[in-house]
Amino acid sequence: MPILETPFARLDLIRQPEQANEPLQAFDAADEYLLGHLYDQGLPANARVLILNDSFGALACSLAGHATVISSGDSHLAHLALTKNLQRNELWEGDVSFIPASEVAGGPFDVVLIRVPKTLALLEEQLIRLHGQLASGARVIAAAMIKHLPRAAGDLLEKYIGPVQASLAVKKARLLLATPVDKPAPTSPYPTRYRLDGPSLELLNHANLFCREGLDIGTRAFLPHLPKALGDLRVADLGCGNGVLGIVYALSNPQARLTLVDESYMAVQSAQQNWRAVHGDRQADIRAGDGLAEQPAGSLDLVLCNPPFHQQQVVGDFLAWRMFTQAKTALSKGGELWIVGNRHLGYHLKLKRLFGKAEQVAATPKFVILRAIKS
């Protein structure tokens, strides 16, 4: 694996989830550029540094021991990667504090380092939360690979922080240097809400939610075909997002015992609030996690899933395949995995290979709803 070498540290880093023969590295030129710039500008030993959206811990691990480091992001997998990479490089875990994006990191911060996220709404919410959290003379530096750096990212920095200067490009990476100025306290447009027609529900969505402004078309195709009146089954909504699949399933299955899990902290926060709004005090296990990795084997009867087809900017079905494998392990004999997927992804063949038995429940011109049974 490539080694990250900067003036701060020499690190052997891994991604999460781990894959055999991993084709991608856990850092990029934007991480290297950002760390090199920070070193050149000088970092006081007692500085409080906030790092936002550090995908696999490259920035936090590099600065561990050089400053007081607080890392915040919306990915449970990123948090897991940070923990593993601190251990892997024999760094003291106490040198870095992690704050989920569903919580507010308290300042004052002398330096804020930002990896520009794929979802600009998340960046906007993070910048809004920086109001009143910056120390006098604080530096705010955002970084990204140029192909993943929209102009709107600089506009948001200027709107919420202050004037922005773009760096020269280095190895196809760029920095955005924002100079903080006094601004009125901003009002966040998040969370947003939208309504479902059938069943009639209003759902809340925090900033980093996929399809935050309305129900995604895959889930829309899935909802009418959710199984009903199945009794007290143990059911998981895997990759739950705002919780819509689990919440709607629970309406038609009042005795079911629900687990809702997602790797996004803001998704879990949204699902928890939506569950309470619809089901009140009815018990459910709603948590952030690495899919069903922590679910005991054979402990579920049914898994519902609208699998993702990307991790950050990386597109592929490796996450979906991993979720299917986790579901098979977590299901009891005769248990079922129900999914919705784009027709062209060929999930039917993958599920048949994995489970031995898979069938189509329903279809639209774009999507298929599939059911796989654990033998």
Automatic annotation (TrEMBL):
Gene3D superfamilies: Vaccinia Virus protein VP39 (3.40.50.150)
Listed EC numbers: 2.1.1.174
Keywords noted in UniProt: Cytoplasm, Methyltransferase, rRNA processing, S-adenosyl-L-methionine, Transferase
Domain Methyltransferase small: 201-371
Domain RlmG N-terminal: 1-180
Primary localization: cytoplasm
GO molecular function: 23S rRNA (guanine(1835)-N(2))-methyltransferase activity; nucleic acid binding
Catalytic activity, reaction form: guanosine(1835) in 23S rRNA + S-adenosyl-L-methionine = N(2)-methylguanosine(1835) in 23S rRNA + S-adenosyl-L-homocysteine + H(+)
One cellular component term from this protein's GO annotations in UniProt: cytoplasm
Location relative to the cell: Cytoplasm
Alphabetized Pfam families for the sequence: MTS (PF05175), RLMG_N (PF26049)
Function description: Specifically methylates the guanine in position 1835 (m2G1835) of 23S rRNA.
Family: Belongs to the methyltransferase superfamily. RlmG family.
Protein name: Ribosomal RNA large subunit methyltransferase G
